[in-house]
Amino acid sequence: MAGIYIHIPFCKQACHYCDFHFSTSPQYKDELVQALVAEIGLQKNYLNGETIETIYFGGGTPSVLAADEIHLLINTITELHTVASNAEITLEANPDDLDAAKIKALRQTNVNRFSIGIQSFFDEDLVWMNRAHRAKESESAVKRAQDAGFENITADLIYGYPLLTDTKWKHNLDKMFELNIPHISAYSMTVEPETALAAFISKKKQPPMNEQQSAAQFMVLMQAMTDHGFEHYEISNFCKPGHYSRHNSNYWQGVKYLGIGPSAHSYNGETRQWNIANNAKYTKAINIAKIPAETEILTEENRLNEYIMTSIRTIWGLDLNRLNAIAKGSADELMKTTGEFFDKEWIIQKDNTLFLTPTGKLYADHIAAGLFF
Q1: 116-133 pLDDT, tens digit each
Q2: pTM value surpassing 0.90
Q3: Checking CA distances to 120, which of 9, 82, 97, 139 falls within 20 to 30 Å?
């Protein structure tokens, strides 16, 4: 099984914290959609004929596309690949795009899962983030989607930023539970270089993020999810039983995937490649049947570290046997570096698998780095 990711590099406006590749000008959208169609054809052999289990439209804001454009891209994939009959097909969407007409049109496509970027149910927070929607639109968009038959929904929240008091954070979580959303992704606000937020902080127009606030709100998040029957299956992802994101779970479990579009990444087990993050240069290259990508051949060390980084974050843990399958004897070498983490009770071992403890999840990136070869 394998997955396909399609990057839609358009947004109505730029969120202050976002460093993903996108453009706020839709001027060349039609040309880029045609280039995506062409790249699907050019890359048809990358996955060596493996059945496609998941298709994921990310961005940017994929919901800025018309339903017939999304239908075209899905059809192109199904014409060139074997797609599983129960494939998970996810569309990232902003609440303001999901009006009744758009949802009705999307119902006629094979999209069967929405990822809705809510972020907060407070207008002042959304204005601070420079989001295009408002809180009321979030609630109505979710309810409209559910009424139309889209039950497989995930929604995003952000925590750990100055405006978000603990009371507001608990309200945001309670509203998610009230809406009966079966999958929730929650991310700590990070300050990425070359974003508006980074510029505001450097010019002292905004205070820096507070790590203690973020950690405290993460602990509140974990407890609330447990209390409401959600599984914490990856650091930032929680779901009711049976509602894992199959596409993202495949990333964490090392399943092959093909990335289509500017800035999209691909992985086939032996190599990783990434397309140029420039719409005009991407389209120009595709139009002359050239894939504008750089490729990296993964070394044994690359594969070990990638498995450590992704697996330790999940409910399935870091399997020492799988580590040895990548490189014989690597599990013994890794265990020599774990003493500090066991002493601090950040990790535990069950049989041949390492897992993060609840406290350890606060330090997931630090732990992974400490285990790298």
Answers
A1: 999 999 999 999 999 999
A2: yes
A3: 9
